[in-house]
Amino acid sequence: MSALPLVALVGNPNAGKSALFNALTGARQKLGNYPGVTVERKAGRLSLSDGRPVELVDLPGTYSLDPGSPDEQVTRDFVLGKQAGEKLPDALVVVVDASNLDNHLRFALELIALGLPTIVSLNMVDLATRDGLELDAGVLSRELGVPVIPTVAVRKRGLDHLRGELETVLGQMGVVRPSLPTRDFDAVRHEARRIARAAIVRETPSRRLTAAVDRVALHPVFGLALLLGLMFVMFQAVYAWSEAPIAMIEGLAEMLSNAVTGALPPGILRSFLVDGVINGVGSVVVFLPQILILFFFILMLEATGYMVRAAFLMDGVMAKVGLSGRAFIPLLSSFACAIPGIMATRTISDPKDRLTTILIAPLMTCSARLPVYTMIIGAFIPARAVGPGIGLQGLVLFTLYVSGIVGAMIVALVLRMTVTKGKSGGFLMEMPKYQWPRPQDILLGLWQRAVIFLKRAGTIIFTSTVILWLLLSFPRVPDGDPTSQVDHSIAGRIASGLNVVLEPIGFNRDISLALIPAMAAREVAVSALATVYSIDAGDDEAKLEQSLGDRLKDQWPLPTALAFLAWFVFAPQCISTIAVTKRETNGWKWPMFMVGYLFVLAYVAAGLTYWTATAAGL
Amino acid sequence: MRLTELPLRQPAYVDLVDWSVLSLSEGQRLREFGLCEGASVEALHHGGIFGNGPIACKVGRMTIAMRRSHAAAITVRTDAQEDAA
Prior knowledge:
Strand order of the largest sheet of chain A: 2-3-4-1-5-6-8
CATH topology of chain B: SH3 type barrels
Strand content of chain A: 5-15%
Number of strands of chain A: 12
Radius of gyration of chain A: 27 Å
Helix content of chain A: 55-70%
Strand content of chain B: 25-35%
Radius of gyration of chain B: 12 Å
Mean pLDDT of chain B: 85
Structural class of chain A: alpha/beta
Strand order of the largest sheet of chain B: 4-3-2-1-5
Number of helices of chain B: 2
Low-confidence stretches of chain B: none
Number of strands of chain B: 5
Oligomer: heterodimer
Shape of chain A: elongated
Distance between the termini of chain A: 62 Å
Number of helices of chain A: 28
Distance between the termini of chain B: 22 Å
Largest interface: A-B, 39 and 33 residues
Largest sheet of chain B: 5 strands, antiparallel
């Protein structure tokens, strides 16, 4: 990279490493990948007190230098200077959890033994105090032989002190060739325990918040009720909180569209800007508030430490379908997007557990499906209450999510009895203390998500919308010809061909048309429909005034809309998911298998929905 | 007695771990969690409506979750003091 001094942040999982990284670097972060592996590289800039910049890298959390997963391999190679494309770090900042010294000091001792300039950040000292633990950083520093700085990353305490020490150790740089320490595991463990004892000044048993909360959160009945309640609130909030911001974005799109319509004469350029760009991209951007609300909940569940509790509660159920509770975390992340979800399966050590989890991850309703769901629900399901605080629309959305989950469980069960047959792996996890996350950390996470989504809207979604607009607009219908522009266009003809297959399950030509670009990104189905109906309306003022939802309501029978929803529960996933599956499973075999089985399921589910709804006279 | 039989919130110490029941990586992870002979342990929660889910227990200052099959490989004692080492 550059000649900037390189400092690596390293430590156990749950030591508060990421919070410290955020506090030290602020929003000046760069996310990337280490070459050859799908491990995220998080780097940022930190300024020393004299203004000198330092590159800080947040390494994946690990328990030792004996790697058990690709993430942990990166951490080991990085601190040894063996990670491809990276230089040897000039210094290490080892983050330890103040209230878990016995354990974290063992890894700290391993790292200090490497011989690199090292500082220990005694993090989360406030939580240790809360638990009645008083520590002497001076004793710790003397015993470890390196500077020890008490920090509270989430309150920005101790950070200046840390920067100051970093300046000192970077100033006295020498040439170091780190090598793996050869000391016996148990010897280091005993040493860690001895030092931890020495550093503890006072230890008074106090009421522990975490234990108190866990009595409810991990309770077999109340805990499960709490989890279900949280999930339900999450999906209701996606609707309830998003109304105002959505109205704002819609207003903005309308203003733009009116401005362009007023400024340009009718014709191809105006049609391109209004139908293709503003209607197409706008119809997707409108879902940003809902996606952010969903991510907000997932980030909160992760940052507070609740996610692991959910995994604990779900292990029993997951075990029944041959998975581990650990799989629950990637699967819950997949509700936001299957890509980080599939990447998160790397923490599952059992290969067959992991493969099964990857294969069912796309069945979790990702946020890209949300635009499709909300548009159809908004148009076809009446917004009335079915109980106190429970709206029918939210209930339908909840049902769709549940269908995906139930589908995934059944698929997992079948896979575990057939293609991924074998002994099930175990469930072994650390349960971190509950912690109230720093609002800035959550906001930073949301900001990064918003940027990713808007970039997608600006690139993939924009491109596919424009291509679709081109295919829909040409060849032009000759004047006086009664066929509609859509029927006459290239896209219309392709869709008519495809419709032969999709007609039996109640899909019309417009849906067939929308499904092709939806492979690029699922939410494109919405912009594609917006473009189709926008072009279809031509210059008909009354039709142009109608919202997409109203137009769909006019043109689609209810069974078709329901079948369309059912299709998207299993919808063959987007190209990015296929790509990440190929990368994570090292080949085309499993992604192809995944696409195949999802297509079959989607077709059958949509068909069953359509036939049942039609038979019921809906 | 086995860790699965240890009453909730009764402090105990790990007496013996049958490492042969655990896979190599599971054994290593447990050791990294600080669970080995002599460590203090306390069962906190039994998961699952029928008590057949995983077990959450405190090992030293850390709370970890493991399946019953793993907990059954761990023998604990409640009488003696923690090992000095």
